[in-house]
Amino acid sequence: MHEDIGKILLTEEEIKARVRELGAQLKQDYAGKEVVVIALLKGAAYFATDLTLAMDMPVKIDFMVASSYGNSTNSCGNVSVKLDVAEELAGRHVILVDDIIDTGLTLEAVCCMLQQHKPASIKTAVMCDKADRRVNGKSADYVGFCIPDEFAVGYGLDYAGNYRNLPYIGVLKPCVYART
Ligand code: PRP
Ligand code: MG
């Protein structure tokens, strides 16, 4: 285990097993449909890769870099897009993939933006759900694990850009973020 990690929340084996289950579920739910999986970078890089491999069906993959910058009365109005989708979404079934739903603002805003492309449907898949942190009513359609409100890193989750490539999800030792 990395020296900055205090405890492991989800082991590599638990993550792999759950991603396989979610992939099988999506394969069943989207059979025969034209699917575009959109990964929200950077956090979703690992989950979206493993999930689409586990889906084992024809899908298109696309990427977005978008982040929310706080509350707004218009949920589409609080997101900054640094890289937009390139794939045609109209009439297609979109699965928006992220590493975590926290306040819910990012998924709410990005879903709102994607609706403007007139897809046949939009659903969301996240590896982790920190439900205690939600500020809106947003929920993800496919959830890997519900996790407590602790400083989790790994499998895409970062602290100051680090720890994303840990193959497990762990809680950062408080002394690490107290240093800054
Ligand atoms: C993080 C995380 C989710 C989002 C969740 O992304 O990857 O995308 O925040 O937070 P929310 O539910 O409160 O909106 P971030 O914007 O930090 O960028 P990153 O994916 O590059 O780490
Ligand atoms: Mg993110």
UniProtKB/TrEMBL annotation:
Gene3D superfamilies tied to this protein: 3.40.50.2020
SUPFAM superfamilies linked to this entry: PRTase-like
Keywords assigned by UniProt, alphabetized: Cytoplasm, Glycosyltransferase, Magnesium, Metal-binding, Nucleotide-binding, Purine salvage, Transferase
Major site of localization recorded for this protein: cytoplasm
Pfam families for the chain: Pribosyltran
Cofactor: Mg(2+)
GO annotations of cellular component type: cytosol
EC number(s) recorded for this UniProt protein: 2.4.2.8
Gene Ontology molecular-function annotations: guanine phosphoribosyltransferase activity; hypoxanthine phosphoribosyltransferase activity; magnesium ion binding; nucleotide binding
Catalysed reactions listed for this entry: GMP + diphosphate = guanine + 5-phospho-alpha-D-ribose 1-diphosphate; IMP + diphosphate = hypoxanthine + 5-phospho-alpha-D-ribose 1-diphosphate
Pathway(s) the chain acts in: Purine metabolism; GMP biosynthesis via salvage pathway; GMP from guanine: step 1/1; Purine metabolism; IMP biosynthesis via salvage pathway; IMP from hypoxanthine: step 1/1
Family (UniProt): Belongs to the purine/pyrimidine phosphoribosyltransferase family.
Function according to Swiss-Prot or TrEMBL: Purine salvage pathway enzyme that catalyzes the transfer of the ribosyl-5-phosphate group from 5-phospho-alpha-D-ribose 1-diphosphate (PRPP) to the N9 position of the 6-oxopurines hypoxanthine and guanine to form the corresponding ribonucleotides IMP (inosine 5'-monophosphate) and GMP (guanosine 5'-monophosphate), with the release of PPi.
Protein name: Hypoxanthine phosphoribosyltransferase
Gene giving rise to this polypeptide: hpt
